[in-house]
Amino acid sequence: MVWSGAVTLFGLCGLFMSVLVTESTGATAALLGLLTASIALGIVVPVLLWVDRLEAEPARTMWFAFLWGALVSTAGALLLNDIGMAFFAGLHLDPVFTGAVLVAPVVEEALKCLGVLVIFLVARREFNGVVDGIVYAGMVAVGFAFIENIIYLGGAYNELGAPGLLGIFVMRVLVSPFAHPMFTICFGIALGMITHRRRWRYAFIPLIGFVAAVFLHFLWNFAALSTIDGFLLAYVLVQVPLFIGFVLLLFYSRRQESRMLREHLTGYGLNGWFTPAEVAMLISPRERRRARAWAKGVGGTRAEQAMEAFQDESSELAIARHHLERGDPDPVWRHRERALLHTVQARRATFAAPLQTPQPYAAAQRIVPVPHKL
């Protein structure tokens, strides 16, 4: 029901955006905008997938995030931005400046963050922490920036020809491909922080994240409308430090996720469910790739697929244990842990001999704690 509704919504918004973009820029400019805007996808999406390697999110949820940003957020922003600009024009204020600085940051971030919030509420068992918040918020923002870039690039080509297209391409695609993701990721991080304590008294944390996203968006738009010197100064003093902080945050989040997997999978290993070699493999993307290649060599494609499923389900098992140890009241995590313990053993049997009988499930509920220094 949810997915059929989402498909209908995306279809209607996609039709609306297709008509609007082609009518405002023309088919040729729209095609050129599409081709050049796609380069930004090739820059940002691989970074988000790299962050998500240890516990990959379902493809359907990732597509939902991207399409929400590309279709729903952009369609809503075009309508609401026009309404906001008309309102300020009625107050005899510059609609271009007020629209870009006062209206767009609030409207666009609200619509993008709404998509992240929908995932947080509907696909709650796929939203398990800060890393997931970064990935989902980043994908929503990438989708939004993709369509927005098509509009800006196509419009620049119509007004100034190839030089205009090149100028906007350098500014939006090469210089600032991570701008929109950095804004919306503030909200994604905030949601990730309350994943294990979804109570109303923590609602102020996502609210702070939303305010931070709007503020950063405001700074960027304000700088873009200032003089060239003002923009360069803001870029060097604000955007560059933000980008460095963004990169450091990605590495830190990846490290924390790896630490969580090591801690919980080692606990299962001490109870006989994993070997030390398997634990070492499961917390290293490089070793995971080598393990899949080894499985394919010894058992063909079927063994390789079993190894990949073994890796993914082991990560899900660690996440289920993380929820249980954080006191998540949802009973699904206990049932999910029980099912995954047996599923992982069945996957292993496809590419390797089964382990000596591990501790029974009842013992698995009393996982031996692992020191944090591991």
The level of helicity is over 70%
Radius of gyration: 23 Å
What's the rounded overall pLDDT mean? 87
What is the count of distinct domains?
2
Shape: elongated
Query: Into which percentage range does the β-strand content fall?
Result: under 5%
Structure commentary:
This protein has 374 residues and is mainly α. It has two domains: 2-225, no CATH class; 257-364, no CATH class. It has helices at residues 2-25, 27-51, 59-90, 95-122, 130-175, 179-193, 204-224, 228-270, 276-282, 285-325, 332-351, 361-364. Helix 2 crosses helix 5. The protein is elongated and about 75 Å long. Residues 368-374 have low confidence and may be disordered.
Outline of this structure?
This protein has helices at 2-25, 27-51, 59-90, 95-122, 130-175, 179-193, 204-224, 228-270, 276-282, 285-325, 332-351, 361-364. It is mainly α and 374 residues long. Helix 3 runs antiparallel to helix 4 (95-122).
